[in-house]
Every structure is written in C-alpha cells, then in structure tokens.
UniProtKB/TrEMBL annotation:
InterPro entries: Alpha/Gamma-adaptin-bd_p34, P-loop_NTPase, Small_GTPase
Species whose genome carries this gene: Glycine max (Soybean)
PANTHER family: ALPHA- AND GAMMA-ADAPTIN-BINDING PROTEIN P34
One Gene Ontology term of the molecular function aspect: GTPase activity
Protein name in UniProt: G domain-containing protein
Highest taxon above the source species: Eukaryota
C-alpha cells in the first residue's frame, strides 16, 4: 500500500464534481480498482488513490485526488493542488446543476497550472434520445441469442427505461451545447461517458467516429499528457 508521502510526490490528477455524478465509478473503471465504497477524509474532503499507468511505452506512478464540489470545499485543503498535472471535471448529463458546480469553481480558481484539462459528461445512457441508444440497440440485436429479452436487466435496459433508451424522442442538447461552449472558451477537452455501463460506453462517438470506449479515451488522454514525467 502506498504511503501518504509517496502519493504526495507523484504527478497528480485532480478529479472533481458534485456528489452523485459518478466520480467513483469512473475512477474504478480507469484504475481497475473498486473504489465505490471509499470514504472521504473529513478534514480535507478529498480521497487519494495511487495508480500505476503501465503500457508498452512506459510505466508511471501517479496519484488521483478525488473531491466533491460543495459549498465547503476549498482547493487550499488539497496539499499538492498547485503541483497537479491534470484536472478532470465530471458532471451528470441529465442534471444542469451538476455542470454549474465545476463552472462556478473554475470561475474563481486558476487552472492554468494544469497541463491536462478534461470535462466528462457522465451518465449519457440516461439522456433521452441520445444517438448512442440506436447503436446500443443494434449491438443488442446482434447478440447470438436472438430470443433474448431486450428489456431485461441483464442487458442494462429495464422495462421502465425502455422509452428513454429506445424511443425516438429528440433530446435536449442545452447542457451539452453550454458545456461545449464553456470548454472551448477555457481550452478544456470535452468527452461524453457512461461509467456504469461499459457496453453503452462503447457506443459513444466523437464527430461520428466511435470512441470505442470513452473511459479508455480519458485514460489515453491522461497517459499521453503524463508521458513526459
């Protein structure tokens, strides 16, 4: 187990967002470690994890500092904030207020010290009428068991969610458009993701090209930015 001193000396990734936007789920997917039940330090309101990035090009030990954005949060309580390399902000695509939280935080925080700036719109599977639903449905239909019940919990679609997942309703893109404009203004990379459903996550695309796995896209952007360390 990594010591606190060891984690303090590693290149840092700052993962922030409101409560219940899926930060723990995304972190678990990125690090392949279950952190769903991780407790937050009551004094600093942060949770720190070690992560070893290991690929065919290099190996790097980094630390990921996760924090809930709320009225009491202050970056001053994070000991290595000024020395962190990457900022990853997460919001719920279905909750406009969850995007307002990181926008408000950035408005009074200097983020220029970060080499990598990412904003993740999570829980895309719950966005009514999102184009990825059609791709997800096509993939389900290609399953070998043609008799499978598409509305079963086994395939990630409940009977109650059937309308939003498979319907033809036009989605409201206000939150996405607002986020894209804000990200462009601040040179932040925007990525959509579905941290809780890897199969749906594979159906997301950027400008018409499948991301293959958007959480892995986050992983790729992070390791590229951290490669020089």
């Amino acid at each position: 187990m990594e010591s606190q001193t060891d984690l303090l000396n590693r290149p840092g990734i700052f993962l922030i967002g409101s409560s219940n936007v899926g930060k723990r789920t995304l972190l678990s997917r990125l690090t392949s470690v279950d952190v769903e039940g991780a407790a937050f330090d009551s004094a600093s309101q942060v949770n720190v994890h070690g992560w070893t990035i290991n690929n065919k090009y290099y190996t790097a030990d980094v630390s990921i500092w996760m924090a809930h954005l709320n009225d009491d949060f202050s970056a001053a309580n994070v000991p290595v904030f000024r020395r962190m390399t990457a900022l990853v902000m997460v919001f719920d695509m279905n909750e406009p207020s969850s995007l307002a939280a990181p926008r408000e935080w950035v408005s009074h925080t200097d983020i220029q010290n970060f080499e990598i700036l990412l904003c993740i719109g999570n829980k895309v599977d719950l966005v009514t009428g999102h184009p990825a639903h059609a791709e997800y449905r096509r993939r389900l239909l290609k399953l070998e068991d043609s008799a499978a019940d598409l509305y079963s919990e086994e395939y990630g679609i409940s009977e109650l969610e059937g309308t939003s997942l498979l319907g033809d309703e036009e989605p409201s893109w206000d939150i996405r458009r607002s986020c894209l404009e804000w990200c462009t203004d601040h040179n932040i990379e925007f990525i959509e993701a579905c941290g809780s459903n890897a199969d749906f996550d594979k159906c997301l695309s950027i400008d018409g090209d499948l991301q293959e796995l958007s959480v892995s896209t986050v992983h790729f952007l992070l390791i590229c930015g951290l490669e020089w360390y």
